[in-house]
Amino acid sequence: MTADPQRLLADLARLTSSDGDRVKLFQAAADRIKSDGGYRWVGLYDVDSQSGIVANIVWSGLGAPAYPTFPITSGLTGAAIANRKMINVGDVSADPRYLTALGTTRSEIIVPVFEQSGENVIGTIDVESSGPNAFGADAETLLQACSEVLQPLWQR
Asked: Which whole number is the average pLDDT over 141-147?
């Protein structure tokens, strides 16, 4: 976990109030979450309920996602959206919902981002690790807080 979660959250909050290109702001956020959390890979995604598509906005890590767009009902992301809650899988090879993004991924956590009213999922934060059971309660708490702080970026 990050050495100073409050500083990370404050820096992310500053990003949401910054002027600038939406994609560049998202990239800065993904890079900060990755580096401060010590994560291997972080992806931020738009969720378009009307079209039924999830689309990658940015990623920070080893490589681009294998599925830059996919149906809203697919994968662990689809489960997080449908259940309206975080999904934390300690061994993705044992979960049939997993869409292989990086062949070396063992753990993945998907955090939904809700619109301001709290009704609809408008985005997700996806974090992957090569280690099993990589995301404990501290990571869950931090990533949930990141989703709440970054929510205004998804409304742009």
From this structure: 97
Per-residue b or e along 35-68, where b marks 16 or more CB atoms closer than 10 Å to that residue's CB? ebbebbbbbbbbbeeeeeebebbbbbbeeebebe
| Residue 81 in tokens | 């959206």
Q: How many other CB atoms sit within 10 Å of the CB of residue 127?
A: 27
**Which two structure tokens, joined as six digits, stand for 143?**
């990533």
Q: Read off the pLDDT of residues 64-75 as tens digits, 9 standing for 90 and up.
A: 998 999 999 999
Q: How far is Cα 126 from Cα 122, in angstroms, rounded to an integer?
A: 13
Q: Which two tokens stand for residue 75?
A: 């994968």
- CA pair distance 26, 43, nearest whole angstrom: 10
The counts of H helices and E strands in the chain are 4, 6
- What DSSP designation does 14 have? H
CATH level 3 topology of 5-154: Beta-Lactamase (3.30.450)
What are 121's strand-pairing partners? 114
In the structure encoding, which two tokens stand for residue 150, read together?
A: 């970054």
